[in-house]
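[Solved] Which block belongs to which protein?

Original post:
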Amino acid sequence: MFQSIHFNAKPRAVTNASKPEVLGKLEQIVGAANILIEPEKVEPYGADAVKEKFPPEAVVFPETTAQVSQILKLANEFTFPVTARGGGVGYTGGAVPVDGGIVVGTDRMNRIVEISPDDLYVVCQPGLTTYALQQAVEKYGLLFPPDPASYKDSYIGGNIAENAGGMRTPKYGVTKHSVLGLEVVTATGEIIRTGGKTVKNVVGFDLVGLICGSEGMLGIITEATLKLLPMPEATATVRASFKTMKAACEVLTKFTPEGLLPMAMEVIDKNCVGAIEQNYAFGLSPDAGAILLVAVDGAKAQVETDARLIEQILKENGGFDVLRSASKADEDKLWDVRRAISPSLMKYGTLKINEDVVVPRSRVPELISKVEEIGRRHDTFVANFGHAGDGNIHVNFLCDRDNADSIARARQCVKETFALSVELGGSISGEHGIGYVKAAYLDMAIDQPTLEVMKGIKRVFDPNGILNPGKMFV
């Protein structure tokens, strides 16, 4: 079986959440039909894309903010862990109950409360998928910009908790740039509201910014007010091949002097290109050492002008087999290459360790070159692709899941790649977060005084250590 990462499954933790008195009270809060306790039913809620299993003792599905508050107050009374969970598609174990206890699933909290075309915001609950939200606001001619690759399965609450990114980040930013206000139940069960429905709001501390990216360690999001934008009239994509990754990545800084701000800039290395072509036969050039996709959006006439200019820039800087979309169907075909990467990499190993390091955009060529060198030094196959426009590269080390030495070499590659990213002015994660998977490396990216401030904030919000224990700080 091909997996992103693999660990041994853990025995089911037993905490006070297993007490009949606690289970009875949970049933009273959410109803018997909305609580799972059977091992075979709770097991799927004990893992995410990491695939390591930490089965919870129970899974509860509240429908209201008041119910979430009651659950957390109960957890403090009986001292058992609570882990909030959305779509369960994360890559760092952020929504996995590593210390047992209960999982709070937000599946039933999936309503759109309000859409305001005049004031450009939407109010929704955390259990709504990104795709469902995008489809709903598009009916009003509006755009919700964040677009993580898992947008059809990821929940809004999880996107905020992880501060998810995506391909449109170069122009529109990450999830936190689209969050105006939040309703949050703190670890102690208090219901707080922060931010609001306006773009400008400087009253009090920026708790919205604090909650975004906090990985469910400070509170459970129960409602979000999100910023919308007018839907662009048109989009266009240009795709080009390059002899090397270095040549492709060096083009990234050529657009700004021309006044261009592409919506997306994605790069794919030669190992990905080879795997894609072998699996799908798109007709990609065997001479392609890399592929660069550049997308723009806006008014139709301007998009046409920008796309022609991008095409010219790519050709002038070593791009060949340059293709520019003339229709939405053309555009989809150009992006099919990007979508085909992950399934195609199966041919290189049975275990794929996928890391999402980030560096300043101008340092991407150096990052790629040195990561390839790390792979060669440790005899480990490496494939690089991702969001070159914001410096967020997905570095994939392929190894044999049944070979301890192969895995150990890959792990060493990961450690050296993290150190390299920090050395280049970046960090160890651009969008996947820390969870428990990257917790051991956190001090590479954050100094001790700063870590202590973060731990202090955690203690203020969660004095009893109830929410999502075992994450980030080890």
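(Second protein starts here: sequence line, then its structure tokens.)
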Amino acid sequence: MPSETTSMALREVTAEPEFSLWQRIIGLTRRSPTAAVGLGIILFFGMLALMAQYLMPHEPELVYAERVLHPPSSEHLFGTDGNGMDIFSRVIYGARFGFGIAIPAVVLALVIGIPVGLWTGYRGGMVDEALMRFFDGLRVFPSIILALAVVAATGQSLINVVIVLGVLDSPVFARVVRSEVLALRSSVFVESAIAAGNPTWRILFIHLLPNAIQGAMAQTAVRAAWAVRISATLAFLGIGIQAPTPEWGAMIRQGAEFMISGQWWVALFPGVALILLVLGLNMFGDGMQEILNPRSRAEK
């Protein structure tokens, strides 16, 4: 019989190491500095969105009629806009709209694209051809023009913008998942599942989905950056979210009117915030694709 000391030693040897959050961050930095920097930017804006109520020195839609177009100062760090609203507070609050549009739009695109990609890749045939040709049509048509037309027709609300962006982006995830399923549907584990009498839904969502979703997950951050950029473009063109709502695209549109007269701060600060968030999402997405790529992992 092993002694108590020997049993404790064996448990210590066989126990899996516990990694702290700091160790995981260091590991991510070593594997992909690009992903680490992108994650840092995303977390920064996520903190702004979550803590906006406590970080804003003024209400984002509070009008100071006597302080219209005041330059940056100790009272208003980023100055005031053409309505006399504090730009610093509006930039902070605008982070909520950035994430509030990007996250639901990507989730909707996943909900639409993943089942379509699973079904068409597994079944094939005429249904596959018809759906893929329809999705190809969505991707070929300029997305910004299509989004402009649909949002203008359905109404300029936050929900409509999210739905339009989610539907327009679903072909990306459908294509990625479909290509994975096409490579996996002849695998031994799929044939074994069919021979065991598993229904189609179980084969798709229990056996194929966990093995085919990796590429789609690597695309989420990049597609979130696309959603943020397109939603801001719609607002800048006057089709998306409208002023005085503190949305960065709408703020840039208002500030563009004052650039010629020298009030540069109205458009500069929301523009910088928009660029940084899109950059952070793209960097994190590129880094995760690099990490999840089997070839890059084999090289390292």
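Accepted answer:
You had them paired correctly. Confirming on the second one: The chain is about 75% helix and 0% strand.
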